[in-house]
Amino acid sequence: MPDIRLTDEEIRYATLFESMTGVTPIDVVIDNSYNRIIFVVGKSQAALAVGKGGNNVRMLKQIIGKDVEVVEYADTPEELIKNSLYPAKVIAVKVTKSPSGNLVAITTVAPSDKGIAIGKNGRNIAKAKLLAKRYYDVDRVVLA
């Protein structure tokens, strides 16, 4: 896991998230391009953090005034990308090196879930790219 330092603003969000959900986030990513905050939580902590019927996320969204998204951390870039694209059904993720030496994750999703994986205005695939880059230095996430 990379050494990630949170800003004061991110720490405030992390504290609020923890007090409302009982889950301590591993990371907080402020994504202004999509007006959202992405909380990365430990394995099998996402359901607890989201709350019954999404209650915790809804309350946080009202308080913060931005969209709130929760992603479970994973030990591999493949698994993290899969978690980032949930609830889309990801069939496979293959990370390869491009000729220029950059890491590229080729992601295959069920054809019926392609729209979910991309998300409105590309927000879901952008989240996968953001987290894959932040944790595993993957330069591109491509839907196949």
Automatic annotation (TrEMBL):
Superkingdom of the organism of origin: Archaea
Chain ranges of the NusA-like second KH domain: 21-72, 77-140
InterPro entries from the UniProt entry: KH_dom-like_a/b, KH_NusA_2nd, KH_sf_prok-type, NusA_arc, TF_NusA_bacterial
Record's protein name: Probable transcription termination protein NusA
Annotated source species: Thermoproteus tenax (strain ATCC 35583 / DSM 2078 / JCM 9277 / NBRC 100435 / Kra 1)
Localization in the cell: Cytoplasm
UniProt cross-references to CDD domains, sorted A to Z: KH-II_NusA_arch_rpt1, KH-II_NusA_arch_rpt2
Highest classification ranks of the organism: Archaea, Thermoproteota, Thermoprotei, Thermoproteales, Thermoproteaceae
General function of this protein: Participates in transcription termination.
One MF term in the entry's GO annotations: RNA binding
Gene Ontology biological-process annotations: DNA-templated transcription termination; transcription antitermination
Any one GO cellular component localisation term in the record: cytosol
SUPFAM superfamilies, alphabetized: Prokaryotic type KH domain (KH-domain type II)
Entry's family note: Belongs to the NusA family.
Keyword line: Cytoplasm, RNA-binding, Transcription, Transcription regulation, Transcription termination
Pfam short name (any one): KH_NusA_2nd
